[in-house]
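Batch manifest, entry 17 of 40.
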Amino acid sequence: QYRHSLQRRIKMSQINDIALVAQVVVFKNTRAFDTLVKKYQSPIRRFFLHQTLGDTELSDDLAQETFIKAYTNLASFKNLSSFSSTWLYRIAYNIFYDYIRSKKETSGLETWEIDAVYQTEQRQVGEHMDIYRGLSQLKEVERTCITLFFMEDLPIEKIAVITGMPAGTIKSHLSRGKTKLTTFLKQNGYDGKR
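Output type: structure tokens
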């Protein structure tokens, strides 16, 4: 009963998203797009926070860029996929990796990662700091897969659509990332005995 009700709510949410997208595309209804932004800005921002290891300013900038790109490309949205969990995350994923590529070209990735870890350590405290420190142990691609699978609760099939990676590759990144995180947490006093 509960599962059926949940599936129905998800389906209704997808239908509402498609209706909002149609209003934006056909009638240039910016209020409809604002509704989509309000609905999805927190998950998209959270995705970027995990990718940037807690850099709030950069995460806000990348999230804003994601919604601008989504708006300008909304006509290309095919409602074969869910607006939020595939199409929008695919845009966010591409924006993040475009940012990483541009950073590599100008200053090298290692510098960016060191800066991000330093900023995180300076700004964050408690569990958030531990999460970002743990995520900083992962390669970008592992961090992306871990974030989408465990933190955004997306199935491997949707992660494959978002990243363009085969399901087997995603499973490998998840396994390696999970092992690294487990090791990090054990080394930092999270041994599950609390």
